[in-house]
Amino acid sequence: MAVDKEELQEFQKEVKAWFDANAPKDPGFLLPQSFMEVGTDKQFHFLRDWQREVYEAGYLGMAWPEDYGGGGKPQPFQDIVNREMAKRSLPFMVNIIGLSWAGPLILNMGTEAQKRAYIKNILSAEDIWCQGFSEPDHGSDLANAQLRAKKTGDHYLLNGSKIWTTLAHVAKYMILLARTDSQTNTKYEGLSFFLAPMDAPGIEIAPIRKLTGEYGFNQVFFADSPLPADCLMGEEGEGWMVAVKTLQFERGAEGGQAGGTSMVRTSVGEVVALARTVKRGGRPAIEDAHIRDQLVRFLMEEKGMRLNGARAKIKPLASERPGSLLMSVKLLESEFQRRLGAFALSLQGMNAAYYMGDPEAADRGRWQRGLFNAFSATIGGGTSEIQKNIIGERVLGLPKS
Labelling 299: which of 70, 91, 157, 161 has CA 20 to 30 A away? Predict the structure, then answer.
């Protein structure tokens, strides 16, 4: 759908004015940088209220259908909002699993009843979603999921556990991959995909303390937990196909997400500001020629990734290897954030040993915590090694062996 350029320019002015007037103030405690780090009630309620405020202002789910609570507008309107939020480093949308994975999946493959039941409350953050894919004994081997879902009358009984389940402690629903048939020729068969309520009997949630000392991850145990049969997404036994579709949304290889930001990314500009304040040999670190050279390299890389996002939307510029840019986003951005975080700490010299709570820590210890948390993005949603395999096989056409 063609969009009038002047209309978009006027909308951008409107969005800027709204964020100028409504951007949340510092709450007095350190906010998480991504949904994987929401570990306290204070953090959660602050972020949930913020998402609801953005949605009620009309700036979330703008391209989702009006019939289900969206805005019914062309995607460029939501793109403008997303850019303004990222540019200002505003808090992210806490219900990111619903907004970027479950919601697009339901709109793409769900029944009319499922769309009407779930979509609006995903946008308003009334219903928080989590993801039940990883299991304790199977690492990144998603297709080898062993949590059992046994059909009994009009219910399935769940037995087993899921791990690294972000937001499970506050979630109302889980997108869940479970094994409904163990007598199959391959591990990819016999899996089914569910939209599972988290208040079912027999579900136990155990918080996991992370390297940072904070919480956010959980292990979820199921013991004869009943699940209504109408929670099934697609057909029984088609779970692997549905899971792969979900991962395409999760990794940014397919569009349709509701919008907003999924994390507050550290920008090179922030690291430049840090380099102006920290000292090396008694002088500001930025006066060191080697450090300036490294900062310029980071700036070039950051700019390149931003331009790749624009390039991916122009078919003639991405026709040689369609999808290659979108399939690379998760790998490139997560590894960039990890390297940038490590560099920010190196600027602090011995002061890098301070941590959150230490009065001498720069910026309340956000750099130290940020580096530790950056590793989670290189693991969650498929490790960097798996992302490289995907790019090698699906983009470059390399053999699996």
Answer: 91
Q: In CATH, what number is assigned to the domain containing residue 246? A: 2.40.110.10
User: What CA–CA distance (Å, rounded) separates 108 from 158?
Assistant: 26
pLDDT digits (tens, 9 = 90+) for 115-163: 999 999 999 999 999 999 999 987 778 888 999 999 999 999 999 999 9
3-state secondary structure of 220: strand
- What one-character DSSP code corresponds to residue 391? I
Which residue numbers in the chain have pLDDT < 50? none
Q: Give a yes or no: residue 400 inside a domain.
A: no
Cα separations (Å) of 359 from 39, 139, 163, 356, 362?
22, 38, 35, 8, 8
Given 107, 128, 149, the domain boundary residue is: 128
99, 259 contact by CB (below 8 A): yes
3-state SS class at 55: helix
For 76, other C-beta atoms within 10 Å of its C-beta total 17
Half-sphere CA count of 312, side-chain side, radius 13 A: 17
Active site residues: 250
pTM equals: 0.85
Chain centroid to CA 152: 34
161 and 228 housed in the same domain: yes
Contact in structure between 138 and 173 (CB atoms under 8 Å): no
Q: How many C-beta atoms lie closer than 10 Å to residue 378's C-beta?
A: 19
Q: What are the C-alpha distances in Å from 288 to residues 16, 271, 294, 343, 352?
A: 37, 14, 10, 14, 18
- Give me the pLDDT at residue 1, please: 59
Q: Do 340 and 266 meet the contact criterion of CB atoms below 8 Å apart? A: yes
C-alpha 45/C-alpha 162 separation (Å) is 25
Our count of domains for the chain comes to: 3
Residue 76 token pair: 């460029």
Any residues with CB less than 8 A from the CB of 228 and at least 6 apart, and which?
Answer: 154, 155
Domain that holds residue 101: 9-19+29-128
What was the pLDDT predicted at 117?
96
- What is the reported pLDDT for 296? 97
Amino acid at 297: R
